[in-house]
Design a protein that fits this description.
- By secondary structure, the chain is mainly alpha-helical.
- The chain has 2 domains: 1-29 and 133-236, Alpha Horseshoe (Serine Threonine Protein Phosphatase 5, Tetratricopeptide repeat), CATH 1.25.40.20; 31-104, Serine Threonine Protein Phosphatase 5, Tetratricopeptide repeat, CATH 1.25.40.20.
- The chain has 16 helices and no strands.
- It has helices at 2-12, 17-23, 26-29, 35-40, 43-50, 53-61, 76-82, 86-94, 109-116, 119-127, 143-150, 153-161, 176-182, 188-200, 214-221, 224-234.
- The radius of gyration is 19 Å and the shape is elongated.
Length: 236
């Protein structure tokens, strides 16, 4: 979890400790295909991993199932997202792959791209039918919450433009605003995330399950810029 996570635990209080430990592993919860899996892939999964759009098209035309799964529940489209293979992803989506399918860990290509900070793949996915509104992950969260947690400010702005639900509450009891504060470091990227969320209309006052608001969390951590953003938003 590291120094930032340990500091956040001491500030968040014992009641939020278990939730923080879970949320801090959001990126680790995703299981991208490893080197051995990539070498063993055949058919569409192999073509996706190579970014071979022509082979993807040939296989689909020959009747290959675009929703076939590997041992971790990944479709070829998930493999393309995990490996940033834009040409293969485009060919798969054009050939009938389901853009909002969830893998075995309940991640879709939008959330995979969001966690990877892969803006190009995110834009492609949204343009070709994937939704920023999907509820994903073991945390019943959204791509927006994951990106806010990780401080991926450009991704957050893309997801907002894509219609992501601003005030979705995951099963830890946290919104994107709360995660930007509680799991952020108070630095420029998390500040930019918080500003984007508030300016887009996210509710800055929704508290966690202990009744602690984002403003109170920011004050406890000494995040002066976040405090200023939240205080200004509260007066609107």
């Amino acid at each position: 979890m590291g120094v930032r996570g340990a500091r956040a635990l001491s500030l968040a209080g014992a009641g939020a400790a278990a939730a923080l430990l879970l949320a801090a592993s959001v990126a680790a919860a995703q299981i991208p295909p490893g080197p051995e899996e990539l070498r063993a892939y055949q058919g569409l999964h192999a073509a996706a991993a190579r970014d071979d759009a022509a082979e993807v098209g040939r296989l689909l035309a020959a009747g290959a199932n675009p929703e076939a799964r590997d041992g971790q529940g990944r479709t070829a489209l998930h493999v393309a997202a995990f490996t940033s293979r834009a040409a293969a992803a485009r060919a798969l989506l054009a050939g009938g792959a389901q853009p909002n399918a969830l893998d075995g860990q309940r991640y879709d290509i939008v959330t995979i791209a969001a966690v990877k900070n892969d803006v190009a793949m995110l834009r492609l996915a949204l343009a070709l039918g994937a939704s920023a509104r999907n509820v994903t992950s073991p945390y019943d969260g959204t791509a927006l919450i994951a990106a806010a947690h990780l401080g991926h400010d450009e991704v957050v702005r893309e997801l907002i433009r894509g219609g992501a639900p601003l005030d979705h509450v995951n099963n830890l009891g946290w919104t994107a605003v709360l995660e930007a504060v509680i799991l952020g470091d108070g630095g420029p990227r998390h500040v930019a995330v918080l500003r984007a969320l508030v300016e887009a209309g996210a509710d800055p006052g929704l508290p966690d399950r202990q009744g602690v608001t984002p403003l109170e969390h920011a004050r406890r951590r000494g995040y002066a810029e976040m405090v200023a953003i939240l205080k200004s938003a509260r007066r609107r």
